[in-house]
Amino acid sequence: ASPIAARSRSAAPGLIIGGDSWIDRDSNSYVLALGGDPVQLGAVPAALAVGDTSVDVLAVAAMADLVGLPYLMAQQPGMPLPAPLNPYALQGDIKDSQTIWGAHVSAPGRTAILLRGGIGWVEFADITCNYNPTPVPYTGTEWANANGHGGAIALYAALKSDIDTAIQAALKADPGQRLHFAGHGVGAVVGLLAALDTIINVKPQIQPQVWMFGAPQYATYDFFQQAETLIGSTTLAVNRRSDFLPRIPLAQQSFSVGKTVSLQGRPTIDDPTAHGLSSYAALLSPRDLTRAEIA
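User: That's the sequence. What structure does it adopt?
Assistant: C-alpha coordinates below.
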Protein backbone atom coordinates (compact mmCIF):
# COMPACT_ATOMS: atom_id res chain seq x y z
CA ALA A 1 0.00 0.00 0.00
CA SER A 2 1.15 3.53 -0.63
CA PRO A 3 2.37 5.56 2.38
CA ILE A 4 -0.14 7.74 4.17
CA ALA A 5 0.14 11.24 2.79
CA ALA A 6 0.90 13.97 5.29
CA ARG A 7 -1.55 16.84 5.19
CA SER A 8 -0.25 20.04 3.65
CA ARG A 9 0.68 22.58 6.30
CA SER A 10 1.29 26.28 6.26
CA ALA A 11 3.58 26.06 9.30
CA ALA A 12 3.93 23.47 12.07
CA PRO A 13 1.60 20.47 12.55
CA GLY A 14 -2.05 21.37 13.03
CA LEU A 15 -2.12 20.37 16.69
CA ILE A 16 0.62 22.83 17.50
CA ILE A 17 -0.33 26.21 16.08
CA GLY A 18 -3.14 27.74 14.08
CA GLY A 19 -1.56 26.96 10.72
CA ASP A 20 -4.35 24.44 10.17
CA SER A 21 -7.68 25.98 11.10
CA TRP A 22 -9.27 22.73 12.27
CA ILE A 23 -7.47 23.05 15.59
CA ASP A 24 -7.68 26.79 16.19
CA ARG A 25 -8.84 26.75 19.82
CA ASP A 26 -8.13 27.94 23.33
CA SER A 27 -4.68 26.64 24.13
CA ASN A 28 -5.32 25.93 27.82
CA SER A 29 -6.99 22.59 27.17
CA TYR A 30 -4.04 21.51 25.04
CA VAL A 31 -1.55 22.49 27.70
CA LEU A 32 -3.33 20.09 30.04
CA ALA A 33 -3.83 17.38 27.44
CA LEU A 34 -0.53 17.46 25.60
CA GLY A 35 2.01 18.72 28.09
CA GLY A 36 3.12 22.02 26.58
CA ASP A 37 2.04 25.32 25.06
CA PRO A 38 0.77 24.50 21.54
CA VAL A 39 1.02 28.11 20.42
CA GLN A 40 4.80 28.18 20.65
CA LEU A 41 5.88 24.56 20.34
CA GLY A 42 7.83 23.94 17.17
CA ALA A 43 9.05 27.50 16.75
CA VAL A 44 12.64 26.25 16.43
CA PRO A 45 13.45 23.38 14.03
CA ALA A 46 14.88 20.30 15.73
CA ALA A 47 17.06 17.46 14.52
CA LEU A 48 15.47 14.17 13.56
CA ALA A 49 17.49 10.99 13.84
CA VAL A 50 15.50 7.94 12.79
CA GLY A 51 18.40 5.52 12.32
CA ASP A 52 17.05 4.22 9.03
CA THR A 53 16.40 6.19 5.86
CA SER A 54 13.65 3.75 4.90
CA VAL A 55 11.38 5.31 7.52
CA ASP A 56 8.67 7.45 5.90
CA VAL A 57 9.06 10.59 8.00
CA LEU A 58 6.05 12.31 6.46
CA ALA A 59 3.82 9.36 7.30
CA VAL A 60 5.12 9.36 10.88
CA ALA A 61 4.44 13.11 11.15
CA ALA A 62 0.90 12.68 9.84
CA MET A 63 0.18 9.97 12.41
CA ALA A 64 1.61 12.06 15.24
CA ASP A 65 -0.84 14.81 14.26
CA LEU A 66 -3.79 12.44 14.02
CA VAL A 67 -3.15 10.83 17.41
CA GLY A 68 -3.80 14.23 18.96
CA LEU A 69 -7.43 13.99 17.90
CA PRO A 70 -8.62 11.71 20.75
CA TYR A 71 -6.92 14.01 23.25
CA LEU A 72 -9.01 16.89 21.94
CA MET A 73 -12.19 14.83 21.85
CA ALA A 74 -11.64 13.67 25.44
CA GLN A 75 -11.01 17.23 26.63
CA GLN A 76 -13.92 18.73 24.72
CA PRO A 77 -16.51 15.95 24.14
CA GLY A 78 -19.06 16.87 21.52
CA MET A 79 -16.96 19.72 20.20
CA PRO A 80 -17.49 20.05 16.41
CA LEU A 81 -14.43 20.16 14.18
CA PRO A 82 -14.40 23.38 12.14
CA ALA A 83 -12.61 21.78 9.17
CA PRO A 84 -11.92 18.25 7.86
CA LEU A 85 -8.81 16.21 8.66
CA ASN A 86 -7.97 16.15 4.98
CA PRO A 87 -7.73 13.51 3.51
CA TYR A 88 -9.28 11.76 6.51
CA ALA A 89 -12.86 11.81 7.72
CA LEU A 90 -13.76 11.29 11.37
CA GLN A 91 -15.97 8.21 11.69
CA GLY A 92 -16.51 8.07 15.45
CA ASP A 93 -14.99 7.83 18.91
CA ILE A 94 -13.67 4.90 20.90
CA LYS A 95 -14.51 4.90 24.58
CA ASP A 96 -15.16 2.82 27.64
CA SER A 97 -18.38 3.34 29.56
CA GLN A 98 -17.92 7.11 29.78
CA THR A 99 -14.45 8.27 28.70
CA ILE A 100 -13.21 8.89 25.17
CA TRP A 101 -9.86 7.17 24.62
CA GLY A 102 -9.71 7.03 20.87
CA ALA A 103 -11.13 7.87 17.48
CA HIS A 104 -11.30 6.17 14.11
CA VAL A 105 -10.79 8.06 10.89
CA SER A 106 -10.84 6.97 7.27
CA ALA A 107 -9.36 7.98 3.95
CA PRO A 108 -9.48 6.20 0.58
CA GLY A 109 -7.89 2.79 1.06
CA ARG A 110 -7.16 3.13 4.78
CA THR A 111 -8.67 3.38 8.24
CA ALA A 112 -6.75 4.57 11.31
CA ILE A 113 -7.54 3.65 14.91
CA LEU A 114 -6.13 6.46 17.08
CA LEU A 115 -5.57 6.03 20.82
CA ARG A 116 -4.43 8.56 23.38
CA GLY A 117 -2.40 8.18 26.55
CA GLY A 118 -3.44 9.19 30.02
CA ILE A 119 -4.74 12.67 30.85
CA GLY A 120 -4.21 13.78 34.42
CA TRP A 121 -2.74 11.96 37.38
CA VAL A 122 -5.63 9.55 37.99
CA GLU A 123 -5.36 7.93 34.56
CA PHE A 124 -1.58 8.07 34.76
CA ALA A 125 -1.46 6.37 38.14
CA ASP A 126 -4.21 3.79 37.57
CA ILE A 127 -3.49 2.83 33.95
CA THR A 128 -0.14 4.06 32.64
CA CYS A 129 1.69 3.09 35.83
CA ASN A 130 0.12 -0.37 36.07
CA TYR A 131 3.28 -2.20 35.03
CA ASN A 132 2.21 -5.52 36.52
CA PRO A 133 2.81 -8.24 33.90
CA THR A 134 -0.62 -9.52 32.88
CA PRO A 135 -1.59 -12.38 30.53
CA VAL A 136 -2.29 -11.13 27.02
CA PRO A 137 -5.87 -11.52 25.70
CA TYR A 138 -5.15 -14.21 23.10
CA THR A 139 -5.78 -17.93 23.19
CA GLY A 140 -3.48 -20.75 22.13
CA THR A 141 -0.56 -22.53 23.73
CA GLU A 142 1.89 -20.18 22.04
CA TRP A 143 0.55 -17.33 24.21
CA ALA A 144 0.43 -19.33 27.46
CA ASN A 145 3.38 -17.55 29.07
CA ALA A 146 3.00 -14.22 27.28
CA ASN A 147 2.53 -11.25 29.60
CA GLY A 148 2.27 -7.54 28.95
CA HIS A 149 1.66 -4.12 30.49
CA GLY A 150 -1.23 -4.58 32.92
CA GLY A 151 -2.76 -1.14 32.43
CA ALA A 152 -2.76 -1.39 28.64
CA ILE A 153 -4.29 -4.87 28.69
CA ALA A 154 -7.06 -3.75 31.06
CA LEU A 155 -7.72 -0.65 28.96
CA TYR A 156 -7.86 -2.69 25.76
CA ALA A 157 -10.45 -4.97 27.34
CA ALA A 158 -12.60 -1.91 28.10
CA LEU A 159 -12.23 -0.52 24.56
CA LYS A 160 -12.32 -3.75 22.57
CA SER A 161 -16.02 -3.58 21.69
CA ASP A 162 -15.73 -0.11 20.13
CA ILE A 163 -12.49 -0.99 18.34
CA ASP A 164 -13.96 -4.21 16.93
CA THR A 165 -17.03 -2.35 15.71
CA ALA A 166 -14.88 0.25 13.95
CA ILE A 167 -12.72 -2.40 12.29
CA GLN A 168 -15.68 -4.48 11.14
CA ALA A 169 -17.37 -1.42 9.60
CA ALA A 170 -14.18 -0.38 7.84
CA LEU A 171 -13.48 -3.80 6.34
CA LYS A 172 -17.10 -4.24 5.34
CA ALA A 173 -16.90 -0.98 3.38
CA ASP A 174 -13.55 -1.90 1.81
CA PRO A 175 -12.11 -5.36 2.56
CA GLY A 176 -8.90 -4.52 0.73
CA GLN A 177 -7.99 -1.41 2.70
CA ARG A 178 -5.13 -1.16 5.15
CA LEU A 179 -5.72 -0.69 8.88
CA HIS A 180 -3.45 1.60 10.86
CA PHE A 181 -3.21 1.56 14.66
CA ALA A 182 -1.55 4.64 16.14
CA GLY A 183 -1.20 5.68 19.75
CA HIS A 184 0.72 7.73 22.29
CA GLY A 185 1.84 6.52 25.71
CA VAL A 186 -0.26 3.66 27.01
CA GLY A 187 -2.53 4.15 23.98
CA ALA A 188 0.32 2.98 21.76
CA VAL A 189 0.36 -0.39 23.53
CA VAL A 190 -3.44 -0.63 23.27
CA GLY A 191 -3.07 -0.07 19.53
CA LEU A 192 -0.54 -2.90 19.25
CA LEU A 193 -2.83 -5.23 21.21
CA ALA A 194 -5.73 -4.34 18.91
CA ALA A 195 -3.63 -4.89 15.81
CA LEU A 196 -2.55 -8.33 17.02
CA ASP A 197 -6.14 -9.25 17.86
CA THR A 198 -7.18 -8.16 14.36
CA ILE A 199 -4.50 -10.28 12.70
CA ILE A 200 -5.32 -13.34 14.80
CA ASN A 201 -9.12 -13.20 14.64
CA VAL A 202 -10.12 -11.04 11.67
CA LYS A 203 -7.29 -11.91 9.27
CA PRO A 204 -7.43 -8.77 7.08
CA GLN A 205 -6.22 -8.99 3.49
CA ILE A 206 -3.43 -6.46 4.09
CA GLN A 207 -1.07 -6.50 7.07
CA PRO A 208 -1.97 -3.70 9.53
CA GLN A 209 0.53 -0.95 10.37
CA VAL A 210 1.27 0.04 13.99
CA TRP A 211 2.64 3.45 15.02
CA MET A 212 3.79 3.90 18.64
CA PHE A 213 4.79 7.25 20.15
CA GLY A 214 6.42 7.35 23.58
CA ALA A 215 5.10 3.93 24.60
CA PRO A 216 5.90 2.41 28.00
CA GLN A 217 7.72 -0.90 28.18
CA TYR A 218 5.11 -3.56 27.65
CA ALA A 219 6.19 -7.05 26.52
CA THR A 220 7.83 -10.03 28.17
CA TYR A 221 9.91 -12.27 25.93
CA ASP A 222 7.09 -14.75 25.22
CA PHE A 223 4.80 -11.88 24.21
CA PHE A 224 7.53 -10.30 22.11
CA GLN A 225 8.39 -13.55 20.34
CA GLN A 226 4.86 -14.15 19.09
CA ALA A 227 4.05 -10.50 18.35
CA GLU A 228 7.29 -9.95 16.43
CA THR A 229 6.43 -12.83 14.11
CA LEU A 230 2.92 -11.52 13.48
CA ILE A 231 3.43 -7.77 13.19
CA GLY A 232 7.06 -6.85 13.77
CA SER A 233 7.66 -6.00 10.12
CA THR A 234 4.98 -3.27 10.17
CA THR A 235 5.44 -1.83 13.66
CA LEU A 236 7.32 1.42 14.21
CA ALA A 237 8.03 2.88 17.66
CA VAL A 238 9.17 6.50 17.91
CA ASN A 239 10.72 7.63 21.20
CA ARG A 240 12.19 10.97 22.20
CA ARG A 241 15.57 10.36 23.78
CA SER A 242 14.59 12.42 26.82
CA ASP A 243 11.08 10.92 27.25
CA PHE A 244 10.89 9.38 30.71
CA LEU A 245 8.09 6.89 30.03
CA PRO A 246 9.81 4.40 27.68
CA ARG A 247 12.61 4.05 30.25
CA ILE A 248 10.49 2.87 33.18
CA PRO A 249 11.11 -0.89 33.46
CA LEU A 250 8.36 -3.49 33.33
CA ALA A 251 8.23 -5.78 36.36
CA GLN A 252 9.81 -8.45 34.14
CA GLN A 253 12.45 -7.95 31.44
CA SER A 254 10.81 -6.11 28.55
CA PHE A 255 11.22 -6.33 24.78
CA SER A 256 9.95 -4.03 22.02
CA VAL A 257 8.15 -5.28 18.91
CA GLY A 258 9.18 -3.99 15.50
CA LYS A 259 11.57 -1.16 14.74
CA THR A 260 12.39 1.56 17.27
CA VAL A 261 13.65 4.94 16.08
CA SER A 262 14.98 7.86 18.07
CA LEU A 263 13.61 11.40 17.87
CA GLN A 264 16.08 13.98 19.12
CA GLY A 265 15.90 17.69 19.75
CA ARG A 266 13.78 19.90 21.99
CA PRO A 267 10.96 22.28 21.09
CA THR A 268 11.04 25.87 22.32
CA ILE A 269 8.63 25.00 25.14
CA ASP A 270 8.72 21.48 26.53
CA ASP A 271 7.34 19.74 29.59
CA PRO A 272 9.90 18.36 32.08
CA THR A 273 8.98 14.78 31.22
CA ALA A 274 9.58 15.26 27.46
CA HIS A 275 6.59 12.97 26.95
CA GLY A 276 3.89 15.32 25.67
CA LEU A 277 2.48 14.37 22.26
CA SER A 278 2.73 17.99 21.16
CA SER A 279 6.53 17.78 21.42
CA TYR A 280 6.59 14.67 19.23
CA ALA A 281 4.40 16.36 16.62
CA ALA A 282 6.50 19.52 16.68
CA LEU A 283 9.78 17.66 16.23
CA LEU A 284 8.31 15.58 13.40
CA SER A 285 7.00 18.62 11.53
CA PRO A 286 7.99 18.43 7.84
CA ARG A 287 7.98 22.20 7.44
CA ASP A 288 11.80 22.34 7.45
CA LEU A 289 13.06 18.93 6.35
CA THR A 290 16.20 20.49 4.89
CA ARG A 291 17.40 21.01 8.46
CA ALA A 292 16.39 17.60 9.72
CA GLU A 293 19.04 15.02 10.42
CA ILE A 294 18.29 11.52 9.18
CA ALA A 295 21.13 9.30 10.32
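Confidence is low (pLDDT under 50) at residues 1-51, 288-295.
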